[in-house]
Amino acid sequence: MSDLKSLLLRINSVNSTKKITRVMQMIATSKLKQARTSLVAARRYRDEVLRSLEIFGKFREEVSSSDVPAQGDVLVAFSADRGLCGGYNSSLIRHLRSLADEFKDSGATFYFIGKKISFFAEQFPSARTNTSGSEGVDFYFFNKLVTSLGSKAVFRCLYTKCESAMNMHSVLLRIPAASDFLFHDVCTSHLEPEHKKLFTYLYVQYVCAQLYVCLREAKVSENMSRMLAMDGATKNAQEVGDKLRRRYNSARQEKITKELIEVVSGAEVI
Q: Which of 30, 162, 169, 203 could serve as 221's disulfide partner, Cβ 3.0–4.6 Å?
């Protein structure tokens, strides 16, 4: 009898877990749709700002993310605020560990956005974290950050890019610096305000837009990872529940059969 009760308790526990993981999967699916919509809008704004910058010239095409970091560079790393999203946070932290020594020796400044990566800030004296997590970060946050550091700062973003449901990987992106911009030879003095001021304003907007795109990319990857992780957890809970239910039915049938045999044996004795 005690075995049946313990099996029944385990079945109820697994069913409760399955309900929780299914709800979390549905929430992640809903947030994934919102994140994708926001990402499309952010990319559209970034492309429009870049198109406006092309009035003055274009960025050098040979700029690479693998350039050696220098003094004054800024590394912005994006992680999740919560777990239960598969290997999303762990893969990002592994990538950051591989870059840590190189960036630390260069004297670069670190900005960690996301509570799961904030503990890493203790290893870097120049690191700054957003205590409210990634939920409190928006375009105006990046605008304030870029404005405070100036247009000469070189930003690098470490985030997880979602190519597809089965292809998500961490990426280190170097945002082109203002010094990488090649101006046209044609004079643009007819622009108001003066073209250098206008370029500086548009460049700051471009950097903010690119940082925001990286944030939205990270959100898409996070919700995709959580949706897949919760889907796998729900399926595992279903399998465990089925096995426990078969064991429970088998034990219950065995108990009933044993009781019937005892009743029949007693009747034969009488």
A: 162
